[in-house]
Specification:
Elements lengths: L2 E2 L12 H13 L11 E6 L4 H16 L6 E6 L9 E3 L4 E4 L2 E4 L2 H10 L3 E3 L14 H7 L4 E6 L6 H14 L4 E6 L4 E2 L12 H20 L3 H11 L5 H13 L4 E9 H4 L8 E10 L2
Parallel strand pairs: 1-5, 2-9, 3-8, 3-9, 4-7
Antiparallel strand pairs: 2-12, 4-8, 5-6, 10-12, 11-12
């Protein structure tokens, strides 16, 4: 059995079960804006920073799903921060371990997906150093303790939406009870990230959130899968554009017709201003049927 040990426990989120539970309590219980969600949720966008920065936003998406359904499997398209080849990479079987317990991989769905496309490689080792999927799982374990996981790393390629479509067709063909998620943060602004097109003060942070982030948010809400990777490449407003494009591709196959923005914030707002005026944007979005 393939077992993935946590890579960022103790840094992006607490490294022991009791501390994880307390931190999750704060993420789920802290009041935060929640939009009304009409229609059945088939997918969602979640951020993947440290929980103190973006955990409340991720919790809103998972809570919105829990309000209306109990999926058997969460397929999570992950942002690729440690590129290993050019293919999307699936973790095909086994389990992932966390301080909060283990989650089983949906090996049957993985096998079916691999039978439907040659765009995804079986490569569990591509997942070892990545945090974008890992940080989401304890939120799922909290509200869906019986759920399974299917992790797929998706690089920002021209075929990212097609990868998602293949996953969506498989889920649909076998009537799998699955929700698809994409893990991505938005604009990384400031000298720390070598990205300061509007200067290094508050005006730059305002532009990053209300103009640059908003560009890609609007494309997600419009379910414009083909525009995501070019948009992020041009304006540096998503680190997981491949994952987002795959999410939209899969969700549209599953019947999604609109997106709903639950929350949009930045690290400057959630943990306080950085003296050097660096900030990262976070959005929580669900994709629903009418």
């Amino acid at each position: 059995m393939m077992i993935r040990e946590p890579a960022v426990a103790g840094t992006f989120y607490p490294g022991d079960n009791d501390a994880c539970r307390r931190s999750l309590d704060e993420c789920f219980e802290t009041p935060a804006p929640r939009a009304t969600v009409d229609g059945r949720i088939v997918g969602g966008l979640v951020p993947h920073a440290g929980w103190m920065c973006s955990g409340r936003v991720a919790a809103q998406v998972v809570s919105a799903i829990a309000d209306q359904r109990t999926p058997e499997t969460f397929v999570i398209f992950g942002a690729v921060h440690h590129l290993r080849g050019t293919s999307a990479a699936i973790f095909p079987s086994g389990r992932w371990d966390f301080p909060s317990g283990s989650i089983a991989i949906d090996a049957r769905l993985a096998e079916r997906i691999m039978g439907h496309t040659n765009l995804i490689a079986e490569d569990p080792y591509a997942h070892e150093p990545e945090h974008s999927i890992e940080v989401q799982v304890p939120f799922i374990q909290r509200l869906f303790p019986k759920a399974k996981l299917l992790p797929v790393m998706v690089p920002p390629s021209a075929r990212a939406a097609e990868i998602g479509e293949a996953v969506g067709r498989t889920i649909d063909a076998y009537r799998s009870d699955a929700v698809v998620l994409a893990s991505s943060d938005l604009t990384h602004y400031g000298r720390r990230f070598a990205f300061t097109p509007k200067g290094t003060g508050p005006e730059g942070l305002d532009w990053a959130k209300n103009v640059n982030d908003r560009r890609i948010i609007d494309r997600v809400l419009a379910l414009d899968a083909d525009a995501i990777v070019p948009e992020a490449t041009r304006n540096r407003n998503a680190c997981g554009s491949g994952a987002i494009a795959a999410l939209i591709g899969a969700s549209k196959i599953l019947g999604a017709e609109r997106g709903v923005l639950l929350d949009h914030t930045t690290s400057a707002e959630t943990i306080g201003p950085d003296p050097a005026n660096n900030a990262v944007g976070y959005a929580g979005i669900v994709l629903t049927t009418r």
